[in-house]
Amino acid sequence: MHYHLIGICGTAMASLAGMLQARGHQVTGSDENVYPPMCTMLDSLGIQIMPGYEGEHLTPAPDCIVVGNAIPRGNPEVEETLNRKLLYRSLPEVIKEEFIRGRRSLVVAGTHGKTTTTSLAAWVIDQAGLNPSFLVGGVVQNFSASFRVTESNYFIIEGDEYDTAYFDKGPKFMHYLPEVAIVNNIEFDHADIYENLDAVKLAFRRLMNLVPGNGKLIVGWDSQPVRDVVASFGAKLFSQLETFGTAGDARWQARDIDYAEGRTRFTVFRDGAKWAEFQMPLIGEFNVRNCLAVIVAAEAWGVERKTIAEALATFRSVRRRCEVRGEVKGITVIDDFAHHPTAVRETLAALRLKYKDRRLVAVFEPRSRTSCHATFQETYVDAFSPADYVIVSRVYDAQRAAEMGGVLDITKLIDDIAAQDKPAFAITDVDEIVRSLTPELRSGDVVAIMSNGAFGGIHEKLLAALHSPA
Questions:
Q1: Structural domain for 80, as ranges
Q2: Which end of the chain has fewer CB atoms < 10 Å from its terminal CB, N or C?
Q3: What angle do the packed helices 285-300 and 341-354 form, to 10 degrees?
Q4: Spatial CA neighbour of 6 closest among 107, 99, 82
Q5: Whole-prediction pTM value?
Q6: Measured between alpha carbons, how far is 150 from 131 in angstroms, rounded to an integer?
Q7: Could you say which of 35, 66, 90 is where a domain stops?
């Protein structure tokens, strides 16, 4: 078939393009924002990218047009598709029919930890010899890729709760036919499409309701909203249900968590009995929970404990998850995707654990629609408490946040953080952040740069400034 992808340079769309090509299909696409790294990947695959959006791009007519979730009505190619009554689908629909239907699907969902948990699952199941296909919302360093297509009967995918397309406002994960579903946690997020926490919980309830009777629903029992959603089913899910956590009454528990010499060690108990000991190079209790979810899923698919342990010990994480981008003059620069206040807090707490005696500098860009919104004004104050020095950039899309009902007040946020008796600054421009921060840094400092976007190339600019003799 000939697939044409509108918005092909989006992270997920570019991965889908590569997957479709691996299946032997002809793939073309269009986008108005053509820049690395996705355009570089597509170019290396020989996939044609048409600049801009033009109705002429659909002549001759493709067999199927895939409409990215950021593509609205009014887009010239969307309007051409509708006017000519061409076949069109969303990205999740194509993934479902091309790659998942008829296979054994593991869907990893939750407000936090999806990408890391999916990557862990792909690596563990791969090391068990099951050769899974996978699609992850980040680059898995063990594979140096965000996707893989195999002839295996196993498929592992990150299940996003964000909406699907302009013509399908339901969550993407509703299309992924889970045999096994992991729900790590549930919090209020995506204020642009969910009105409140109850709306988010309803979306996850619908996902849970897709798990078949011979499948497994693996849920994070440390999250009260997850418990609430499970309780709403009554006894209906008990045969499929597996609970995991670090305390309380979860069936699977991680205990004796210890971080030393760059590794986290923990012991897993099932039904109160010791099951196995594990270690991993990741840091933070949240990553222990991510690993625990994968352990339960791997056990459900028959993977031996020894294999699970060996895979976790050799996992190399995901790009942009506490990724060290460089070290200059004893100053470590770290890149992290954190944007929700819980993710910011957990990331900084994990770095504080790893770099115990070093000054921790947090540089944050409120870029996601959640982080731009006033909903989390007070929550962000606590999120930065593990840091010693804080810089917050401008709100990336203040107009959009205003349309959603309120904009994060950076001035107030900085005042509230400074009231914790630590240096805190609001600096709008990336180059000014680099100019202001560079002379303040000293050997031993750890700089955690957090954004779900490119943040104006700040990582490279800061490293270059630190290298400069001036």
A1: 2-90
A2: C
A3: 100
A4: 82
A5: 0.89
A6: 7
A7: 90
